[in-house]
Amino acid sequence: MPTIAPAAATTTKPLDLPPLLFWLGIVGVFAGSLALRFWGLSRFNTLVFDEVYYARFAGHFLKQELIFTGHPPLSTYIIAIGIWLGEHLPWSAEGARNGLSGLYLSPFSYRWLNALSGSLIPLMVAGIAYQLSRRRSYALVAAILMAADGLYLVESRYALNNIYLVIFGLLGNLCFLQALRSRGWGQWLWLGAAGVGFGASAAIKWNGLGFLLAAYGVWLAGWILHWIQKFFRRSPRPLEPKTASEPLTNRLSERANTRSLTPSLSKFPLQNLTQLHLGHILICFALIPAFTYYLSWIPYVQLTEGSSVWELQLQTLNYHQRVGGLDAHPYCSLWYTWPLMLRPVAYFYQTTHGINEPVPVIGPPTIPSASVVIYDVHAMGNPFLWWFSTAAIVLVMGAFVQYFWRWLTGLQQMRSAGGIWEQTATLSPSGWLILYVLINWSANLLPWIRVTRCVFIYHYMVSLVFAILALAYLVDRWLFHPNRIYRITAIGIVVIVLLALAFWLPFYLGLPLSPAELNLRRWLDSWI
What we know:
Layout: H1 19-38, H2 51-62, H3 74-87, H4 112-133, H5 136-147, H6 150-156, H7 162-179, H8 184-202, H9 209-232, H10 248-260, H11 278-302, H12 309-322, E1 345-352, E2 373-379, H13 383-417, H14 429-445, H15 461-479, H16 484-503, H17 505-509, E3 512-513, H18 515-521
Antiparallel strand pairs: 1-2, 2-3
């Protein structure tokens, strides 16, 4: 396995993609994401998996009727807006329709907004990657890998709410990183926008709070490293001898300039974390998210006589407490199985006697022995992408230990030599990138350890984003390595992930399969 030890300092500018190639790649990723999400979007004229909840919630909301959702209501509004817009599109009258959502609708009208929104996620991941590294190659690799995931593809093709949780959380991260590269009112505006994004993510589902938890963790990490650096500065700094011939005015001018110098902002945003004080966090990452979350309940409360926002929180909490444990649903899974993708979820399964027979929507199932064609939509990730990204998380944990140790060693050497502390660099950009990825991955996964209710593999979707960022970091690092083995490894990872997407595409799109073709793709017994 190629090494990821920190590279020695060099004055040579790192290799990167030219801007034109980068933008062509980004456009290609977006076009491919759109094509996969919209192709055959109305194939199943029914409610697939939790569409029986979210599409119905939205349909009844449009009729000014409420059904208790068990989650905050923001996704209900969004899907309802998508339905309203979808029914007014020129092609909305074409094709099959059903009344299963409470309104007589085409499946396209309650799915299209999810498909469009899901297509934007690879671009948002690319934006975060570029903010962290200022590298176009890293951003493009991250976008390609993100677009190649199967679980995100499935979740984008149906009226479900996990896509919106991720979008708002990523939007919060993009604004957070931009705020770290700003000053004054610009910084406040970007931080406020980040707070709105984090609050909106929690207003989709409560586990959206993982994004906010990670933001707290990243900010605290910045100050902890700052305090470590201050600890090493405690020893008295040796006085530098001044020659008698040096004019007094020069010395006084030098001291005045040093005192009045405002620290410049690094182009790597995480190196500027100590620019944020407690007031920023309390207002932008506490009050604004809480207010955003509160506002999301107002339309719901207005249709609920005699209820308050607080009472609805208690009802939601009670709902989750009443959900059973691992025996409550055949596809429940434990949190530590998610990174290895051991238990995906079957969202749709139907059999027909032939390719020309319509897929049954309502009625008794076809006799299994007589089935010829199978339609199976599985909410499963791209297996190789998940396995590679999990291995990447382990590798970058080791890499961070190396970066952190090198930083501590440098501080100790500077302390011993009486170095010029004003010019001391913080943790390296690569070290910060890895720390950011690990904090976000952990903050969105580890809280599930204490959850005893039935949970599913799609609860790993947020952590997966940051595992993919870790994998993209390694691939980008190896792509430009002078050793040919490293470059082959990087290209091989991307090629295998894309081939895996094509191989398991029938599971993601619900394409017709024979029983033999279906079994060929079920590599593990737990994938049934």
